Amino acid sequence: MKELNSDTILSVENLSIRYRGTPTDAVRNVSFNLGKERLGIVGESGSGKSTVGRALLKLLPTAEIKADCMQFRDIDLLNTPEKQMLKVRGQRISMILQDPKFSLNPIQKCGPQVDEAYRNHIRCSKKEARQRTLAMLESVQIRDPERVYGLYPHEVSGGMGQRIMIAMMLLTDPDVVIADEPTSALDVTVRLQVLDILDALVRDKGIGLIMISHDLNLVRNFCDRVLIMYAGQVVEALNASEMHNARHPYTKGLLAAQPHIGGPRAPLPVLERRPEWLEDVKVV
Ligand SMILES: Nc1ncnc2c1ncn2[C@@H]1O[C@H](COP(=O)(O)OP(=O)(O)OP(=O)(O)O)[C@@H](O)[C@H]1O
Fold first, then answer.
1. Which residue numbers delimit the ABC transporter domain (predicted)?
2. CATH number for the domain including 140?
């Protein structure tokens, strides 16, 4: 196992993943470190972003995961038995998914679901869990937590549902949060509120946030660093503020394909893809 320096929470080296029964790796030789920062993983649909996120939590029962290193603090995630993974998952590394509708149980009120998640990890009375839930709901800017506690998932808006999911994920003070398209199902103003909450987690609690998205502009404006994925590989890693200096032709193509409001009217360029980009990838 590697000795991680104090700034590194998570370290991944040459991660490759192949789904059983498929002829090629869905993810190949992906490497990155995560500190107390916002790391974006961006790429088109099918490029392997979510597969990387799920692999970190070993949530891929139908895939083979190989890596030279996949380490969270002093835990070797690759070789950790499932029993210990249960303590890592949801407690020290949490995940938020795109649409709260699919994550919340439709036939149970929202508050008790959060209580239950807490009591799965921490031994405490129902009353203590309820108090913790209400405090967490308040911390994600839900103004009337008592009322929201008693609502069913279909009675809350998408933005409220996503905040409930974030509250659920924060219960155990995780060190790493993997947010997989957390705002794609939300409208623009609610999206900003949710990003604000995630941003505060990095600033105030010092978590490491992995933001998975296909939205280059969102990642560019929100994250500190960005990994660009193309067909299962990271082809470029950049500081978000240096995006305009991208060197890989795929990243340049993605940037050129962004529409500019107010600019001269012109057809958007077609995104070029070349098979040779996948041979001998050196992350630039
Ligand atoms: N359970 C599975 N079995 C087989 N192949 C899969 C499975 N899940 C994903 N894949 C394949 O792995 C590749 C990467 O998929 P993944 O969902 O990680 O991409 P993504 O970049 O997150 O895409 P999206 O933005 O659409 O979610 C795709 O080719 C996909 O078809």
1. 10-256
2. 3.40.50.300
